[in-house]
Task: structure prediction
Amino acid sequence: MAPSFVGVGVGPGDPELLTLRAASVLRGADRVFGPTMALDAVGRAESIVRQAVPDVAVERLVFAIVEDDDARRAAHEVAAERVIACLGAGERVAFVTLGDPNVYSTFHHLAALVVARRPATVVETVPGIMAFQDLAARSRTVLVDGNERLHLVSAASGLDALEVPLADPDAAIVVYKGGRHLPAIAARLAAAGRLDGAVCGELLGLPGQRVAAVEELAGGRAAYLASVVVPPRRAGTRAGPG
Ligand SMILES: C[S@@+](CC[C@H](N)C(=O)[O-])C[C@H]1O[C@@H](n2cnc3c(N)ncnc32)[C@H](O)[C@@H]1O
Result:
């Protein structure tokens, strides 16, 4: 591993889904950082590393989820300074992230801050298996075939994100960050005739995992770590009113 700042995807939860390359890069790093909500709390990514590569120690960087933009920026700045100090000391530095580091990850925000202050920094990433891939496998869902399309959307700001993909019946839809909107997502899919085959995976590979039809789980909110997969409307699947 060259002296660079590397974002390493560790998969969604199951330690067996951390790749051989991720394990080798983590073992070759002088310093491995992991995000956490508090210094005395083991982050999800750190917990996966502990199980998959127990010989690797993870140093925590606090990224509290706060509404206040200034407070969040301040936490990121503190984390960036710590990374820069290690890079300045000639260390090979890795940062672990759930799933893939190039998909809805804190890594690139942190890397941008580091590069802004230390432009010579080489940034690299090691791909990781994503939650929706794990969910497709566990639920035996063929995501896309032939000319079908795939939309990956975030429902963090609500259901508007579903409008464009739902207009395309030949597209599979993956919904991230929609756990707290699960009942509304289920209602929207039902209205569009897309509930058939739609599955939700909560805490995949982690304690408390649930994998079930969206229809079954629609009675309540799911956790933040929940993903929904909606297959394209294929011949033979139920047509809805939408
Ligand atoms: C900040 S994004 C991280 C995405 C991650 N980088 C990836 O490649 O899958 C967080 C969202 O990813 C999904 N997610 C990540 N890990 C998950 C898991 N173990 N089970 C279910 N969903 C998960 C959820 O939709 C969650 O709201």
About this structure: Helices lie at 20-28, 44-52, 69-88, 107-117, 131-138, 163-166, 182-191, 214-217. Residues 69-88 form the longest helix (20 residues).
